[in-house]
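Appendix B. Raw example, untouched.
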Amino acid sequence: MISTVDELRARLAEVRASAPEARIALISTIGSLHDGHIDLVHRAREVADVVVVSVFVNPLRFASPADFAAYPRTPDEDERLLESLGVEVVFAPEAGELLPDGSATTKVTAGDLGLRYEGRARPFYFDGLLTVEAKLFHLVQPDVAVYGDRDRQRVFLVRRMIRDLFFGIEVATVETVRGDDGLPVSTRVGMLEDRDLAAAALLPAALDAAAANADRGVDACIAAAQSALMGEPRIRLEYLSVVDPATFLPVDEGSSGPALALIAASVAGHRFIDNAEIYLG
């Protein structure tokens, strides 16, 4: 693993010197890699010749130093996995390497949309995410950046940042990898006990209910999703919204056409987000 900016620049210079026409894909992660990340690497192989993976637990994305410290870290396992997948460049810096002044660093802001949905629960989150993403774009200068569809708000905001700051980077996405219970594969799912896992599985079920009732309008599909969660005390719902995928703003009752149903909730102290494409009638 490469751990410094200087090493990264030197390695990428070697790559570009040996293959000037090679397309470079960037996958940015916060480590503790799982099957969903494997699919990101496979997707990167489809759209580029060289894959760069960053493994950086970004402190700007966490609510407190305690949350940052508690995030699971599996550097040895991550390195072995990425090596087995043939990833050419793995960049795993310490926090001080990318953020030498800590939270006092120059920041990219997500604006008003960064304070909605995920940003309402974590008002620091998207500014911190975009700030580090912009640093990685500047350092790697990839042709394409690859993301999972589970965090659609992240993908939307990254696309908008790329457009607004003229990065000239393509975005490729990968469909959410799900387990047999419908839950997206994630580090947090693996931390749940069986009874809590059963409760969490109601979240994708709620999205299914929203999709099944979307032809009846926004209010009906939200009500159906809420009904799917009723009676489960382990779930603490944070938000359940239907948004326009072109603007990420809430749709009005009477709207028709493609939309996104978004959900976020906590189960046993672990926070989960998910989404589903729906079609309003």
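End of appendix B.
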